[in-house]
Amino acid sequence: MRVASTLKIAIRALRRNKMRSILTALGIIIGVGAVIAMTGIGNGAKIQVEAQIASLGQNVILVFAGGTSPNGLRTGWGGSGGLKVADVTAIQREIPAVTIASPEIRTQTQVVAGSQNWLTTILGESADYFDLRQWPFEEGSSFTEQDVRATKKVAVIGKTVAKYLYSDDSPIGQIIRIKNVPFIILGVLTPKGLSVMGTDQDDVIILPYTSAMKRVAGVTFLRGINIQVDKAENMAPAQQQIITLLRQQHGIRPGKDDDFTVRSQEEIAAMATATAKIMSLLLGAIASVSLVVGGIGIMNIMLVSVTERTREIGIRMAVGAHGRDILLQFLIEAVTLSSLGGIVGILLGLGASWLISTLAGWPTSTSGSSIAIAFLFSAAVGIFFGFYPARKASHLDPIEALRYE
Would you say residue 24 lies in a domain? Predict the structure, then answer.
């Protein structure tokens, strides 16, 4: 019996019991739709995390004061005063792959502008920091290296600070008081959104690091160093060179723990996306349970169909149909049912992803490969759960089947 004619017979059999076929396919439809929607949400979260990592800049290495150990947290990132400006100078001088090294001072304090006030993060950085972070200006401009050397009282603010302190007015040239020290605002940065840690990157005021050290924080040490490397392939060698150089700078003997922590952008990306990957796998696994339930429904209905059509099977065998023809017929019915359910489920999942993205504002991303896998999996479910009923039908005794009432 040819496959084409067998397919026609299978479709005809499904059309005879339309409502039962639809209800049977519903399990596959819901399962595939759930898989598509859940993987779309998971992939969207992963893409969002990757975008947040990219907002750090390109080929970035971060050095934090304070060290960690395999046994747990010691002083913590930014928890010690081990880093000095001399370390930054040494990194720029001794490591050829380093193109930018920006000292970082970090503190949080209440700032005042006119009658408004706001609690925000204060960063002290070099003039190259905005190039390192690839952070353009929405309005105004950056402070210069000369401003850094002169410890000028100038500042650049993020969009969140500008919004809450100045509303719709331009803050350029305005005075903002940080710990009662007046700073002139030179520029407003374009919005970057949330960081990898979920903090608002735009809720920040950036000063020359010399001004932040002397006029705001009152310290002589750094909380961190932001470093940019010329090429991606130089990241790992440069990271190791930085560790070796800082150990020499700090006089740390072999076998002793570092008083600093060095992390590359790749390491941060791997740690951040690991959670998104686990979430995608978990959501996909939970949604796949629906496919299994749908497959069991197909097996159940096909077994009922075999029982109902026992006499028909006997007649086919009596007029010359072989067991493999009967097997193929029922197998094609099961695969057709699951494949049609898979197609409808894909459309339902894409629609659900779009609806979630539109109404909830969650980013979603559905790749062509995930759609293809979902469809193939739905067809595989039909083969797997339809094989037993089909095999049972093909092994019926023609004489007993003809006697069946």
Answer: yes
> How high does pLDDT run on average in the chain?
82
- Average pLDDT of span 129-133: 91
Confidence (pTM): 0.64
Residues 249 and 279 in one domain: no
* Residue 362: domain span: 3-51+271-403
214 with 93, same domain? yes
One domain, residues 138 and 14: no
75 occurs within a structural domain? no
Residue 205 · residue 117 · CB < 8 Å: no
- Pairing between strand 204-208 and 116-125? parallel
Q: What is the mean pLDDT of residues 312-320?
A: 75
The answer to whether residue 279 is domain-embedded is: yes
Has residue 297 got a pLDDT over 60?
yes
Are residues 216 and 290 both part of a single domain?
no
Based on the domain organization, do 99 and 236 belong to the same domain?
yes
Which residue among 198, 233, 258 closes a domain?
A: 258
Q: What is the mean pLDDT of residues 316-334?
A: 77
Higher pLDDT, 11 or 160: 160
